[in-house]
Specification:
CATH superfamily: Domain of unknown function DUF5300
Radius of gyration: 17 Å
Oligomer: single chain
Distance between the termini: 43 Å
């Protein structure tokens, strides 16, 4: 009984710690483009440059999703997204307010839905 109480307490501490380090802009990215995504770039909307690839998995097949995590303390509201396939072909979407959006679905027609 004592061991399970300690394990439960440790699990609670680990969950609380992971929540404490989440960025306010964290979101789930859903790939409904019809192609496998090999790279995802996220940059502030007012930036001239794309940042580094933030895809946390090797590739993101169409129909799958991945959580995109930000560093705590990031304060930019509006972000742009660029994805690339295996040949380096790219699609870009602009001006997502990630302080209000928790899920973005990229669609085949180059549009996006978000919630």
């Amino acid at each position: 009984m004592r061991r399970s109480s300690c394990a439960a307490a440790l699990l609670f501490v680990l969950l609380a710690a992971s929540c404490a380090f989440a960025g306010a802009q964290d979101f789930v990215l859903v790939n409904k483009t019809g192609v496998e995504i090999y790279a995802v770039y996220i940059a502030p909307s007012d930036s001239e440059d794309w940042e580094e690839d933030v895809l946390a998995v090797e590739t993101l097949p169409s129909g799958n999703s991945v959580k995109i995590n930000f560093a705590p303390g990031a304060d930019v509201e509006y972000w742009d997204i660029r994805v690339e396939d295996s040949d380096g072909n790219a699609l870009e979407w602009y001006d997502f307010n990630l302080l209000e959006i928790s899920r973005i679905t990229l669609l085949k027609n180059g549009e996006a839905k978000y919630e």
